[in-house]
RNA helicase (Ostreococcus lucimarinus), 798 residues
Amino acid sequence: PVQRTGKINDSREGLPIVQEEHEIVDAINTNPVTVICGATGCGKTTQVPQFLYEAGYGDPDCDSHPGAVAVTQPRRVAVTSTARRVAEELNVPLGGDVGYQVRYDKNVGDNPRIKFMTDGILLREVQADFLLRKYSVVIIDEAHERSVNTDILLGLLSRIVPLRAALAAEGKAVTPLRLVVMSATLRVEEFVENRKLCPTPPALLQVATRQFPVTVHFSRKTEHADYVGAATKKVLAIHRKLPPGGILVFLTGQREVEMVCRKLRDAYPLHGKRVNAAESSDDEDEDSGDAMDDTYDVDAIDAGGEDLGGDDDEPDFDGEDDMSDAASDISEEDEVLVMGGEGVGEEEAAEAEAAWTRANAPSTGLGADKTADGPGGLNVLPLYALLPPNLQQRVFQASPDGSRMVIVATNVAETSLTIPGIRYVVDAGRAKERVYERDASLSRFQVGWVSKASADQRAGRAGRTSPGHCYRLFSSAHFVDEMKAHADPQILGVPVEGVVLQMRAMGIDKVVNFPFISPPERSALAAAEKTLQILGAVEKSRHGEEIGPLTDLGRAMAVLPISPRHSRMLFAAAQSGVGGCLSPAIAIAAALSLDSPFLRNSSETVEDDEEEGEAKATPKGPPPHVRFHHPASDALSAAQALLAYDACKSSDAVTFCSTNRLHEKTMREMSDLRRQLKRLVVNLATTSKFGDDVFPNAAVLNELDDSNQAASSMISLPPGGDVERTLRQALCAGWADRIAPNEKSTKATRYVPALLDAAVFLHPTSSLHRSSPDYVVYTDLLQTDKRAYIVGATGIEP
Ligand code: ADP
Ligand code: MG
């Protein structure tokens, strides 16, 4: 029996889904497929796995469902944070009954009863065991996000569930597998109504949420340029004029988030007095170079900027007043609408609001979060994907007395994380996403408008604990006319060669016949096939076959959790027969699978728009990581940095990164990936499942023997040797269609890829500027606002 603490029991009590435990467990017990819809924060992710746990799922002694509960999430942040929370709620250690696994990190014992993981991890597990025998139930969470892996998993599970049922009925040693699909919106209709996926309609449960009404305030005009400044202004106005309650701000990227955090902290420091605006902007110039666009002035707003409405008569919040006048007052809006409020009566809403205000008013009796000197401090917390987990976790902690919590977040806060105590949402209405162009060789990180569904999700975050307000920095006309109903499923916008290879490795030969919820375009599938052919993963298609058979090499490539190109490079090095290549090749594969870890020098004025790896600007001076630079290869430079990082003691890792200006989280993930690849390569070589031509000799294993670690000698691999030549050739095998000649103009750093009719530039952090080789092989082209850059370039001889 579960022994929850009193505090946990209290917080569970308030969750709408807890009322429906019985119906939910009953539905899952009796239906192969159950769909659970409920607004964000109703308790789906944290509670449903616990219901199943208490119903005996995952108990090896249970006859009907001894297998574990698998829970997938599209985002890594959500995996670690919810696993931790569920272990805490169940009062069991993390890594015991409750565990988690994401690509670069895991804390899971041998026999977890509940395992949280990203959808990508489960996809790999399907590849290893198509029947997923370890599990008795799979919960696909956040299905409405429509990530590629989630979509594929749903397609696969639509086959696995009936298969397990049939085998169980025949008395084979398996129990039936239950599928639970959870979603924050009703956008699962495409799944539920797809007869190919769901021949018999699934049980559909809608959790009656007690969502308090949220008043949505549209701006009169849509802020097109300085939405970051507009968001800052809005937060400050809310803080000055409106009753207590956390503020959640939605922006698009790390750089914006950190900038706004700085502005807000300067305006209302948590402890002590405000810094004046002049000082704070000096500060900023120093640590962020010219990247910041300082077009607004905190003090001007504070003095009562004209667009905020006069603040001569400060509204008086004594806990009973309706705040909506004041709430509208701070907004120059064209329209207000109230959404939500399901399951909550007007009186109850008013009461919750008053109770909230009373509970949060400081003992000065001044009401709101005001002290005699005006508003209190702001407890400003950033939230974005690359933030270290311990800092991400801070959003769940209570703010110091008398302060107001402001969370400045990217899209990660939209659905996967429920942050307590949010009463105000400020929504810029945008998100940054990677957009692929021209047969996927060029991509850009683009800030675009989110969908109406996303905007409503964001607004809903304000109504969890009491009635709330959402300030949209765009007009209602813009919302209606310009924003789409739903975001496109991810599978329609990304290259699919990795997905196709994995599906083929699972024995799905006719990928076009796969029950996709939204099938990728034929041209995308054709491009994937072509790439796989170039890489030697599939044979040329013969007599009208849609796609040729998978080769042994292709099967081996599918074993590695990296893209087919990276795998191909690694195998090319292994097959070369040149001693000393494998270890650096693994390091290269790991390094190239993540964003460049090299922090930029701020004297370079390039907009670095890599999604999560953005805002790596650092103080002036030559970046110390030049010592890892290989004169003719950015791929080798990154690998050298990685090997040096792995050679230092783990206690020194943080210092190592800061002295060498390397992005620490990126380095840690690369290092984990490298270790994982080494393990898998050793497996491949020892099981010799694939024959000598794929993975030639067991002698390569000596290279990977840690006691005989030649890796550290690679830190200064002398240019021009056999090993280096082989590695360049291996890179060419992985990216054979991505080779570009130097433009040979006065600008020696311009290259002209065959696939593109325009010149592209070496990235400022590239080590190739001096040598400017005649030809380079590259891994990606990244378009920024200013120009297109070559990523992962290596000089080659034609
Ligand atoms: P849903 O999946 O329906 O969006 P969740 O199960 O994620 O809802 O959240 C339910 C409640 O648990 C929320 O009130 C949320 O604040 C709380 N919660 C979730 N994760 C954590 C955590 N890591 N720490 C503290 N509270 C959490
Ligand atoms: Mg959830």
